[in-house]
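This part of the workshop introduces the protein records we will be handling. An example says more than a description, so a record of this kind follows:
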Amino acid sequence: TGGDPVRDLLQWIDQADAFQASHSKNQWKAFVEACKSQFGFNPQKEGPLAGAGKLAVHEGPWRSVWDRFCEVPKRYPNIPAQIRKCRIPQRDIFNLNVVLDGWPQWNEQKERNFERELLTLGNTPVHEARKKLIELENTHHQRRNLIWAELDESPLARALEHLAKLAEITKSDLAAGSVEDLALGYINHGWQADDAAMRALAEVGNDTDLQAVSTAIRPVYLPWIEESARYLQKLVYDTSYPGGTCLSATPLPADPKECILFVDGLRFDTGKRLAGMLAGKGFTVIEELTWAALPSVTATGKAAVAPVKDKIRGSDNNADFEPEVAATGQSLKGAYHLKKLLTEAGWSVLERSDNGDGQGNAWCEFGDVDHEGHDRGWKLAKYLDSLLAAANCLISRTTWRPGSIYNSIPTPGMLC
């Protein structure tokens, strides 16, 4: 009726009554004739459910209709429900070649079968769990290319991509060699295990899917991360912590007109994700690694990377691990005294909404990763990219040259 019979047919299947009501008798007649001649289908006699069934099968001239639907499926939100009202073809010995990927019922059944398989991994030995996840990826990966994944109806298939990567990465043991070997292993590949676990959790949205994904994560990730951490503890116990002490570690350097950005809760893997975003915006990203402060909490982490760290000390009897001004013993809790130290040292202290004047050096605390993590728990994984995008915007607009981005939360390898 508007010169686009494929679009008209999709609109009619999506909202048949509204479509017909919005067209004149002549327009409706023209639509019916176009459907008969181009698709071998009479909407007047067969009805929208018959059209939905033909769309799901998408054979012959209906292939072009299906392809158009797949291009912009959210433009036709009622079509999946229409297809669900139709009876799905049965695959048997007389009909082996039937294609079922156009049926949401088929995809839903695949997801539920897959969910049961993931739930069986809870008590599986680590090597068997890794093997099983990789086998499942070979079985289910094609569903990520179907329309149902785009419509958020295949969360487990999407999570599987990251679960399989987690299985592959954790095959490589970090618990070997020297401290330097462990750090190098984590820098080169180990951090991707943390990233894969977060990305897998980001795909799920309900408790049932969360249970399946977390059950699959545990047998491959937990032994790997615990063994790595215990091995590092042993190395440190036998020698010393590679990060040094507050007395021996020198302040981190900052060039003129450089702004240090402190992000509370930006783990190594999350920092790598942010670095990728910045590189995509055209920034030149240079990564320089240092060991996180101990204990790995906000208070110690912030003090360790502050350009006035030589003016800060801690006391053994402070249960909150809150550092103090070395000269006066005043607690840095509440940020007032840290900001005062920075200002007295000639640093500008920026709020996250400030651009500054680009003169001298600046210190800025921004990002809500730590706060959102406490509030949202595992759901932080779903919001992480948007939190990093906000940080990306701040970095892009600052007047100073954003030279250094530090965090306060270490990875299992204690690198930040």
